[in-house]
Known about the structure:
Keywords: Coiled coil. The protein has a five-stranded antiparallel sheet, with helices on one face. Helices cover about 65% and strands about 15% of the residues. The relative contact order is 0.05. The chain contains four helices and five strands. It is an alpha+beta fold. Helix 1 (about 5-120) crosses helix 2 (about 125-140), helix 1 crosses helix 3 and helix 2 (about 125-140) packs antiparallel against helix 3. It has helices spanning about 5-120, 125-140, 150-165, 225-235; strands spanning about 170-180, 180-190, 195-200, 205-210, 215. The radius of gyration is 56 Å and the shape is rod-shaped. Among the domains are: about 85-165, no CATH class; about 170-250, no CATH class.
Amino acid sequence: MLPSALMVSALTMQPLFAQEDQTLQPVVEVAQETNESAADSQQRINQITDQIDDKLQQFKTLNKEIEGLQVYNTQLQRQIDSQEQEMADLNAAIDEVSVIERQITPLMLRMIEGLEQFVALDVPFLPEERAKRIADLKDMMDRADVAPSEKFRRLMEAYEVEMNYGNDVEAYSGLHTIDGQERDVQFLRIGRTVLLYQSRDGSYQGRWNQQTRQWEELPSSYSSQIAKGLRIAKQQMAPEVMMLPVAITD
């Protein structure tokens, strides 16, 4: 049991502690509110910092994209400049083509006329085929749906065909008037040097004389040689020496 003096002292201290608690309570509450406010402020600061970091990262990403777009735009501009130059070159070429087309059309007409005259004065082999080729060329020149380049190509093909006639051997069938009667014969052409015919039964043969521009009958002694030449031209036998009449030209 406490002494009476200590009990009195304890009793006298309790009002003092109560007063101190009442005095410190507001301070504690203020401190607590301050701490809570500081914690809220720190949280907002952290959020703002995170937002700034995100914005900074977005800014860096956008900068890289902008740099890439600048490089891409530069390359596109070079391509555009190149295409514009190409368009200018094409326009210039189109203008030149128009000029060339106006010049080449009269040239092609003169070439066809020259080819027709050449065929008329040449040895008269394959007359229908060659005449049709020239007629087709004339018809082609009047067609608007055929490009000038295609017209020129076909004309050059016709010239090439005529040129090749001078370097080959050919046998073909046709009709020929003999003694006033039209007969089925075989023609033998050796380049432009020799043009002969022989009837199917071998009883008639003749040659074209380019100097007189007439057909001349040949004796039967040439019959076997002409028949041999026809077989060689048809690739029915190997080439060999033939004794055929050749007109002497001046």
